[in-house]
Specification:
Helix content: 40-55%
Strand content: 5-15%
Number of helices: 10
Protein name: Response regulator transcription factor
Low-confidence stretches: 145-155, 222-234
Strand order of the largest sheet: 2-1-3-4-5-6
Number of strands: 6
Distance between the termini: 41 Å
InterPro entries: CheY-like_superfamily, NreC/VraR/RcsB-like_REC, Sig_transdc_resp-reg_C-effctor, Sig_transdc_resp-reg_receiver, Tscrpt_reg_LuxR_C, WalR-like
Mean pLDDT: 82
Keywords: DNA-binding, Phosphoprotein, Transcription, Transcription regulation
Radius of gyration: 18 Å
Shape: globular
Length: 234
């Protein structure tokens, strides 16, 4: 049985960026660009008309900007939410906070490269959130106390502790590593890394990688990554 490709709408006021994104996405066997928009109003209209699986929305567009497009299409008041990944040249903290608060499924810098772009799309479809690694650590310094998963305090024991390997994976997630990068660092497959991430989410009772990273950051302040300090295995 053949799985239908992920349908993507690209919204950016720069034609060259739209063309570049389309070339990257359409080269993937599981992705297809179904539309383009050059401003915020057109992005909202196209998204409602075409019902793509994922929208890539630039922050700085004429009319409603990418943050407002995200709120309209993916926010809590959206009648039929669509997954939105915000892409931008600017990694300002307020952009990241607002994008995530408005329902974004990812936050990417345009210089992130093709591999991270396609992984962000796949992560969004899997219900995950991917943030460009270069902004993750700085973001978490401020995001941790704001996290929707703040009920897990740094000293609260977990019902089911993380294994040593899961603690290693959690730390790499907090560094903004992708599943492929985690696999390379730990000499495991990307699929195995993905399984570890899913198990960590379940144990921490968080919804996505942002929750894992925020929990890891909070616990790193007290030298903990779980009920006990992890032992490093060879």
């Amino acid at each position: 049985m053949t799985t239908a490709p992920i349908r993507i709408l690209v919204a950016d006021d720069q034609r060259d960026i739209r063309i570049g994104f389309r070339m990257i996405l359409d080269a993937q066997p599981d992705m297809r660009t179904v539309g383009e928009a050059a401003d915020g109003a057109d992005a909202i209209d196209c998204a409602r008309r075409l019902r793509p699986d994922v929208v890539l929305a630039d922050i700085r567009m004429p009319g409603p900007d990418g943050l407002e497009v995200t709120r309209v299409l993916a926010g809590p008041d959206a009648a039929h939410p669509i997954k939105v990944i915000v892409v931008t040249t600017f990694d300002l903290d307020e952009y990241v906070y607002t994008a995530l608060a408005n329902g974004a499924c990812g936050f990417l810098l345009k210089r992130s490269g093709p591999a991270l772009l396609t992984e962000a799309v796949r992560a969004a479809m899997a219900g995950d959130v991917l943030i460009s690694p270069s902004v993750t650590v700085r973001l978490l310094r401020h995001l941790a106390p704001r996290s929707s998963d703040h009920h897990l305090s740094p000293t609260e024991p977990l019902t089911e502790p993380l294994t040593d390997r899961e603690a290693e994976v959690a730390r790499l997630v907090a560094q903004g590593r992708t599943n492929a990068e985690i696999g390379t660092a730990l000499f495991i497959t990307a699929g195995t890394a993905k399984t570890h991430v899913a198990n960590i989410q379940r144990k921490l009772d968080v919804r996505n990688r942002v929750g894992i990273a925020a929990w890891t950051w909070r616990n790193s302040q007290t030298g903990r990554t779980g009920p006990d300090r992890p032992r490093h295995s060879g």
